Amino acid sequence: MMNEILRAKNVFSGYTDLNILEGVSIEVEREEIVSIIGPNGAGKSTLLKTIFGLLETRKGKIYLRNEEISNLKPNEIVKKGMGYVPQSKNIFPSLTVEENLEMGSYIDESGFEESKQEVLSIFPDLKDKVSAKTGDLSGGQQQMVAMGRALILDPDVILLDEPSAGLSPELVNVVFEKIKEINKAGMSILVVEQNARKILKVCDRGYVLEMGENRLKGTGKELLNNKKVEELYLGG
Amino acid sequence: MLQLILNGLITGSIIALGAIGLSMIYDILGLVNFAHGDFMTFGGYLTFFISLTFLRPISFIPLTYDLLLSAILAIIGVGLFSILLDKIIWKKLRKKGAGTVTLLITAIGIALALRNGIVFIWGSGTISLGIPISQAIEIFGLKITFFEIISILVAITLMLLLDFLLKNTKIGKAMRALSDNQSLASITGINVDKIISYTWFLGGAYAATGGILYGLITSFRPDMGWILLLPIFAAVILGSIGNVYGAMVGGLIIGLAQETSLVFIGSRYKIAVSFLLLIIVLLVKPEGIFGGK
Amino acid sequence: MILPSLVNYFIYIGIIIGIYGLFALGLNLEWGFTGILNFGHVAFMGIAAYTMAILNIAGLNLFISIIIGIALSIVAGVLIGAPTLKLRGDYLAIVTIAFSEIIRYFYINEGWLTGGAGGLSNFNQLLGFLPSQYKQIGFLIVTLALLGIVYVFLEKLINSPWGRVLKSIREDEEVSKALGKNIYKYKIQSLAIGSGIAGIAGILQAFNNYLVLPSSYKPLITFYAWIIVVLGGSANNKGSLVGAIIFVAFFESTRFLPLGDVRVGSLRMIIIGLLLILLMLFRPQGILGNKEELKLDI
Fold first, then answer.
1. pTM, rounded to two decimals
2. What is the ipTM of this complex?
3. B217 Cβ partners below 8 Å, 6+ apart?
4. Does residue A154 sit at the B interface (CB-CB below 8 Å)?
């Protein structure tokens, strides 16, 4: 069972002197999709940023494959095999799709051509757009470029911050399908979502955060059927 | 009129060389580098210094090679000097999250110290590289001197080189990525500080090249770069800040506007023409003719 | 004989401090209290001085010429501010410096009106009626009196309801917009008043030099005002005065270095340049400034 890949233990963090996260703990196991849901301001995105080294871990510890990574710099964390897709501004608009993917492999160019082909096979929509300026693509395609960029180094874990934000309902389904597909290829995924109902159907397990603290956890199904979750986040 | 257009292209080439670096630095660092013109002057004076101090005494080097070698060393020197300033000043201000005014005042401080350092060492008058004045040759009735031809050729070559770097090299692509989205660049593992250093090197080297060429076709004076600074700002804003191709085109337009204005308003307001153009662009279309990103 | 000349020298220094103090107070209202990046401040000094000189030489009463000169500086402030104050801060800096240079080229080129590069000197003296031995001390008194009046006026102004709006603009442009205050209008008013104060400084300088010259209105003079304001501390009138005293004292104390004019001049500017860099790195709020205010750098 102890097949854990990512673990945050009692993490405190925030932007100003004030803590947003006040002792959050989560675990992700190999080949698992884990979701984090909760109201606005609960600290969901803050948690991803802290794990990825964009914010300081003030208290608590973060481990990747049992190796402590708390407070490492993002580029060191990338090298250790983690990818991160921010919620907005997650592409380089004036670069072509291919160049965006290239930036994803900036720290290790070897095997770029091969991984580019793999990424394009996951996102076939992008195949005839490799030379297009990414800023000219549709929102859904841009989201795919962003995910592709994070996948190019074939990380063990990938952090997704609201991948469905700003997309039309059909596109949301496509993106969620892609998340499942990436996961089937053997990647662990930690995803923050507003769209609780959809993500809980897709994920293996989920955490509910509130006010910077853990509130509930369970399998996707358990949370979907939980009265309180239904009341608060699934629109009753 | 054709002669004026030719003169405009010559001036424009030099303004463009200055504008490229200013635009890249403004774009990536949010810094209006008031010292950029003085980097140009520094390039000219460094050439003078290297040539007269180190190369002239070696009498067997022909003057042309002496000049070329000094210029190349000076261009690299100003590039390295720009990196040095980044390491000891700009990087610290960046980490502190300094605002527009702090950056602006610091740039003015560097400009004053650099320009007056040049005056302190070499005096406030013009200096001479001891090159015989090149006679203008006539092509199709248009007069042009040797160094003017060189200026246009060097400017075109450097613009093509920059285009190649930005589109085909890893560093060039990372520069564009940084200009697009700095925080994403650091997330993807791009070493932001290193790319900023390369940008400073390029900006400084291009400025120095422009300064050396400008000195060769006019004269080397301590305020030569400062005088070019506002036309360069005009070129950068006209061509849309951060757009290096815009900066090139903007430089040519400003050069042409300045020289051809002679026909309409005489030589007295030649420089003021670019200022006026600058003000008009900022009021009418502040994002420049090539638009924002 | 050494004593009277020493006294005269200190009177002269006092006058220079007064003129630079006024000039800096005007900029401090614009930048320090309103966040306007005016890099063409010197233009408004020149407009008042040239207007006064031209009108007086043409035969107009000196006092009326002075009033019109200052009024024109204020009008110029409004005319320049109206189209530009909506621009981004750094763009505004570039536009205003370009404006001040265009004005200077005008002085140089329109010799029929402005005397060209040689400037104008045939205007009446402010204290022409005084016996010559009292002229300097009289001028010092006038200068310091004007400085005092402007200082008190500004202190009252920034503590008035008008000044409190400026403070709220500075602290959060969005909030005061939401409150329905027309920020743009306040910025124009601030620029107009600041330009008027620069105009007063310009007129005093013209009388002090017996001359108006295009080269007195170079961008470097605007930078001097910035140095004074930043050194003393932005958004602090007392700071501007302290800055002016230090700046002038530094200038004068280096005058006697045995290096020759060109070298002394350049060495001075090297030191000022390095000082600005160090100030920005280690104490960006200046001597008397408040660090919290500077955080709101626009």
1. 0.89
2. 0.90
3. B10, B14, B145, B147, B148, B151
4. no
